[in-house]
TrEMBL record:
<dbReference type="InterPro" id="IPR036259">
    <property type="entry name" value="MFS_trans_sf"/>
</dbReference>
<keyword id="KW-0472">Membrane</keyword>
<feature type="transmembrane region" description="Helical">
    <location>
        <begin position="158"/>
        <end position="176"/>
    </location>
</feature>
<feature type="transmembrane region" description="Helical">
    <location>
        <begin position="264"/>
        <end position="284"/>
    </location>
</feature>
<feature type="transmembrane region" description="Helical">
    <location>
        <begin position="37"/>
        <end position="59"/>
    </location>
</feature>
<keyword id="KW-1133">Transmembrane helix</keyword>
<feature type="transmembrane region" description="Helical">
    <location>
        <begin position="290"/>
        <end position="311"/>
    </location>
</feature>
<feature type="transmembrane region" description="Helical">
    <location>
        <begin position="134"/>
        <end position="152"/>
    </location>
</feature>
<feature type="transmembrane region" description="Helical">
    <location>
        <begin position="357"/>
        <end position="376"/>
    </location>
</feature>
<feature type="transmembrane region" description="Helical">
    <location>
        <begin position="196"/>
        <end position="217"/>
    </location>
</feature>
<dbReference type="GO" id="GO:0015528">
    <property type="term" value="F:lactose:proton symporter activity"/>
</dbReference>
<dbReference type="InterPro" id="IPR026032">
    <property type="entry name" value="HcaT-like"/>
</dbReference>
<dbReference type="Pfam" id="PF12832">
    <property type="entry name" value="MFS_1_like"/>
</dbReference>
<dbReference type="GO" id="GO:0005886">
    <property type="term" value="C:plasma membrane"/>
</dbReference>
<keyword id="KW-0997">Cell inner membrane</keyword>
<feature type="transmembrane region" description="Helical">
    <location>
        <begin position="237"/>
        <end position="257"/>
    </location>
</feature>
<dbReference type="InterPro" id="IPR024989">
    <property type="entry name" value="MFS_assoc_dom"/>
</dbReference>
């Protein structure tokens, strides 16, 4: 089988579902279920906390007991069944209960797929991680563009059915032929050498702190980017396109990363990511206009994609197979969930004072990350 194509297909099909859920789900609950903005925000925030717990504890534990294929399939089935529960849910309490349950299953699919890709790269079966991951970003953009058309024509009710359909497709693809190594239980492929403590691995703590800071710096953009564009009088019909510039930059980066940045050290990649992130938020602060916001969007290739790629490169190079899931769980929980939640609150406080402050305030993460990345680069030589 063509493992490169298989991994690309997995990323593409999963991120189509994520491209429906992440941008649209809060609005779907508000406009089709009739709850208030504050209620929806609380539901999603509590879901984010459960997401952190599930990726930090449940995912690594299950990854030690189950093969990658079994784990992904089980989480996909759980996700699909839980999403179906949204159909009868028609009150705040029932929507909260279903969302909390969903965040036990659904977010674990992200580190599970990255862990599978890491195992395949380590075993020389996947040649180009970046190229496969770029198909995930393509799926995310495609979902948003297609769904925008259907919601305009048929209304927000389409969002639920789009998520059900896309999740069902992803679930079904999990039962096609899978690379043999991903069908093996972890115990069958671990060695005594691999059974080491994660935090005894060289520089793991420093690298995790850097990537947590770099991903946390996106909090204001994720939460307030849309309303900031409205505040600076961006044409409403172009906002979706402007926001997608970041994902397009991400796609381009991942598609060339394994070729263009193969010889770069992990420390150099992290330092470049921190520098690009600092410049990105600085530009938005210094030039509050639509054109400069669009220019800054291209730096998502550095602030997000390069940081994520650097962590994956560190994982493949330094983390034994038995510890990949645990490392991915910590990264997913702390970098992609909890830190974002904390800095969203900080960014919201700054936004109320002056919208631009919410973005420049993120350098409280990026500047320390830059110095730490330079220290790590020196230590790793």
């Amino acid at each position: 089988m063509n493992i490169q194509r298989w991994m690309s297909q997995q990323f593409f099909s999963f991120y189509i579902t994520w491209g429906v859920f992440l941008p649209y789900w809060t609005g779907w609950m508000i406009y089709t279920k009739g709850i208030t903005i504050s209620q929806a925000s609380l539901i999603m925030s509590l879901g984010l906390m459960i997401r952190g717990l599930s990726t930090l504890f449940a995912f690594p534990y299950l990854a030690e007991k189950l093969s990658s294929k079994t784990l992904v399939n089980a989480m996909a089935i759980g996700t699909f069944i839980t999403i179906l529960c949204y159909i009868p849910a028609d009150s705040y309490s029932s929507l909260l209960a279903v969302t909390l349950l969903l965040n036990i299953f659904y977010p674990t699919l992200m580190p599970a797929l990255d862990s599978a890709a890491g195992v395949l790269v380590q075993n020389k079966q996947l040649r180009d991680y970046g190229k496969s991951r770029s198909w995930g970003s393509i799926g995310f953009v495609a979902a948003g563009m297609i769904l925008t058309f259907f919601t305009g024509a048929l209304g927000d009710i389409v969002i639920l059915w789009a998520l059900i359909l896309s999740t069902m497709i992803f679930m079904c693809l999990g039962f096609v032929k899978t690379p043999d190594i991903l069908s093996q239980k972890p115990q069958a492929i671990q060695t005594d050498k691999a059974k080491v403590n994660l935090f005894s691995i060289k520089h793991i703590g420093l690298v995790l702190i850097i990537v947590i800071l770099l991903q946390a710096a996106h909090a204001s953009y994720y939460s307030y980017g849309y309303i900031y564009l409205l505040d600076i009088n961006a044409p409403k019909y172009l906002i979706g396109l402007i926001l997608n510039i970041a994902v397009i930059a991400e796609i381009i980066f991942f598609s060339i990363a394994d070729t263009a940045f193969r010889k770069y050290s992990i420390g150099a990649l992290l330092a470049l990511a921190a520098l690009g992130s600092t410049v990105r938020w600085g530009l938005i602060y210094a030039f509050p206009n639509v054109i400069m916001f669009c220019v800054a969007q291209t730096l998502h290739a550095f602030s997000f994609a390069m940081a994520h790629y650097a962590f994956m490169k560190y994982l493949v190079k330094n983390i034994p197979h038995s510890q990949i899931a645990k490392a991915q769980g910590i990264y997913s929980a702390l970098a992609l969930s909890w830190s974002t939640a904390v800095f969203t609150i900080f960014g919201g406080y700054l936004y109320e004072i002056e919208p631009r402050y919410a973005f420049i305030g993120m350098i409280i993460c990026t500047v320390p990350a830059l110095f730490l990345a330079l220290i790590y680069r020196r230590l790793d030589h």
